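Input/output pair, single chain:
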Amino acid sequence: MWRRRWWSRLQRLRCRVRASMSSLPMFLRQVRSRSLEHQRAMRLLSEAGLAGQMVSVLRQELDSMVRVIYLLTQSPERRDLLIEASVRGAKWSKVDARAKVTDREMVELSQTLHGWTQSVYKFGCAFIHLSGLHDYNDRDPLAQLPAKEREDILEHCRRYHGGPHPDTERFCDLVPYLPRVLEKIAGNLEYCLAALERGEVFDSREV
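Output:
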């Protein structure tokens, strides 16, 4: 009897190992494909002057990045389960609980690595969900943000992308820099994907 139970457990373990080995390349492929599509979309949207959709694309790229950062801080066993869930289209659950991992938890974790992440993520969310920010042709979206969130976004742009000028804090002055912001996020995402591919585990206290 014990031999049958042992054999059954061994078979389940082998199945899980095979599944995780096949799920990782699939997960990496789908994230990279999504990122490339975002970069193509950003070029087209920039040419068309569709600023609201440009911000939405930034938010979607950040969504990929914060998920990959979250995976990098998990144990290999839990990471495999989450990756399997992702390629199946299932939501991520917390450890030993039915509750789901929330976007807020993942964003707050990545915030320790990229201090501007949460502000840009919130700004992008506002453009995905109907809000007053869609009225950007007549009302400046940056002026509608809390001062701290507005400053986080502008400070990141000025530090890493050379603008907009400190004397200009209008949304229209920020828009030309959005493709560069996406390029930076995509580069960070690829770095994190490569670390995931190598099987690295980040300490959540150090990310």
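The mean pLDDT is 83. The helical segments are 2-48, 51-72, 76-88, 103-111, 117-128, 147-161, 171-174, 178-197.
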